[in-house]
Structures are given as structure tokens and as C-alpha cells.
Amino acid sequence: MPERPNSPSLTPVRGALGLSVAMGMGRFFYTPALPLMVAALHWSSAPGAWIATLNYVGYFIGTAVIARGWVEPNRFIYRLSLIVSTVGLAAVALTPNLIWQGSIRTIAGIASGLIFVCVTQRIPANSRKPHHGGISYGGVGFGILVSGAIVLAAGSFADWRQLWLICAAVSAIFSVIAWTWPIPARIPPHTTATSPKPDTTTPTATSNPNATDTLAEADSPFDANRRRAMAILSTGYFFQGGGYIIIGTYLVVLAGPVFGDTAAASTWLIAGIATAASPLTWSAVAARIGTVKALTACYCLQVFGALLAVFGSTPAVLIIAAALFGFTFIGVVMMTIGVGTQMGVANASAKLTSWYSIGQIVGPALVAAALSDHIAAAFVASAIALAIAMALTLAGVLTGNVDR
């Protein structure tokens, strides 16, 4: 499909639908579909948790290969990953065999990670039209909204296999539109979309054999501070990944006894609506009050939502918890990746998301190993992890001196 450079207003929409394919459907359709699969296949909570964990392992692999420089986030990788993610949705319907399910979800996770980085690394941290970034990030919430709507609308007459096939068909449509997201066919060597411009006033090392040592010594305080800030930020992002994914994986499971297996997807629908509105809201809030205050507010609401879910014995409480989950997690993602980008860290999105992915692996694994029969306790653990994430993330932002 040819590029349409005369339609720049469609660019954020393409990014949004790319993230919808990667995240809202490729990764998160599993959440509203899980209660129906558990009921139909007579699974305990453990198989679902381990399959989710394998998907997160795949997501980590997808982000890590870019962070390590083994794979370029280029046009070929992006488009191939759109295809793999869509085919992976359909492949889930072939058989309930656990080895097959785990393998397919691992491959789908790799594709999701690659798409996420390919899109987010092309979203500028500072733009003349910052709402464009909010629109693109809003695709995650839109995809979640679509996922919940598919299960809620079709779950009463379609079995779990048909639901996955419906989702795959929608993903294919979105992929066609997202296909022309403006990403280079090849990334120039030793450069990234987020690399800072070189300082042309700095003397070169060629005129003086000792200039290299002098330049390294002069730059070392800044570089050391940036590395320290990135390390703190990454650690906080690890705890954020572990804390949020417990809510994302088990919110619908928690809602099952209250709403019923099919109607429980309504909580995911609420989360999708809140997630879709979140990026534009938090970008406006951060621009008005600064990144530190915006992240603090976002994290506090997220922790409160996790604790509220512990008392989720009524529909109203679960709906509020779902809304708070959706409204906060992508806000944290957008602002944290923006911080890493502003610090001038090469492949900041991939590096941060790799740590996020490790947290996502640890979170469901912890629940599967120790808390599978105590979902409420899992949400308490989520709240604790998110509180730690908030403290570390804010410390990283302040250390990096990037607050606006």
C-alpha cells in the first residue's frame, strides 16, 4: 500500500491502530476471553496464568532484541509483526492443547513487543502537535475496548474458538490501515529516532591524540548521571510492569463471580474506554503541571484502583477499579517512555519496555506459584509493587532533570 504523505493527519491513527493490533488485541484479548476458556476447557487458574506468562516472555524477547541492537525497528520488521500478531490470534482457536497455546502466545508476544517499539520509538517526546502522540498511545485503549466489546457482544452465542477468529478478523482490518505507519525501510547505523544531536561546538579528537581522553573525561559526569537516572527509571518500570499486569490479567477473573463469565467482560470494556481517553488527558496534565506531579497523580490513582479491587464484591466497585486501571497504566507508560526519550538514551523505548516486560513475567508467575487461590491477595501485592514503582520512577525523573 503506497504512503500518502499528503495526509499527515492520518499518521497518529495508523500508530493507534498498530498499537491496537499489538496490545489491545494481540496481547489483551486473552483477558476477557480467559473466563470463557476456563469454563469451557475446565482449566484451573494455573494454566491460564502460565500461558499469560509465556506471552510476556515473548513480549520481553521482542523488545530485548531491539534494545540489544540485534534487530532493527524497521518497516519490514513492523509489517511482518503485524501479520504474525494477526495470524497468532486465529491460531489460538486451532486446539486447546496447552503446549500449542503456550507456543502460539509466546510468538504473539514477540510480535507485540516488536510492534510496540516500532511505533513508540517514532512518536516524538516533544512535538508541535503533542496530541498526536496521545492519539497514537490511545490505540492501546481502543484495542482493549474492541476486545471487550467482541466478548461482550458475541460471547453469548459464540464459543471461545469463534471469539478468537472474530478478533483475528478485526486485527486484519486494523493491520491494513496501520500498514503505512511512517517507519524507515532501514535504520541508519549508529543512529536512532531518539538519539540527541551531536554538539558541534565540541572539539574533535582528530587534531589532538589526547583529545579523546579529555572529551570522555569532560562528558563523564553527564553520562554517569544519565546512566544513573536510566537505571533508577528502569527499576521503577520493572515494578510497574509487575504490578499493573496482575490487575490486567485477573481483573476479569475477579469480576466473574459478580457479573458472570460473559458479562465480566464489561469491566474490560470500561477499562478500554478509560485507557483510550487516558493518553490525551495525561499529556495535557503533564504539560500543565509538570511530569513529576502528573506521574505522582497517575500512580496514586493506580495504587488506589488496585486496592479498591480487593473489595470488589459489588459491580460498582469493580467498574471503578477497572476505570482507574485503564485510566492510569498507559499514562504511566507514555510519560515514562517520554522521560527516557528526553534524556537522549538510544533505543529508550525498547530498553525501558524490556524491564517492563520482565516485571510482567514475574507478576503472573508469582500469582501462579503462590497466589493462584488468593486473587484478592494478588491485588494487594500489585498495589505494593506499584507504590515501589512510583517512588523509583519519580526518583529517576528528578535525577534525569527532565521535568517540564
From TrEMBL:
InterPro entries for this protein: MFS_4, MFS_trans_sf
Keyword Transmembrane helix on entry: yes
Annotated spans, Disordered: 190-218
Sorted UniProt keywords: Membrane, Transmembrane, Transmembrane helix
Record field: transmembrane: 12-30, 50-71, 78-100, 106-123, 135-157, 163-181, 236-259, 265-287, 294-311, 317-340, 352-371, 377-398
Taxonomic superkingdom: Bacteria
Segments of skewed composition (Low complexity): 191-214
Protein name: YbfB/YjiJ family MFS transporter
Species this chain originates from: Brevibacterium spongiae
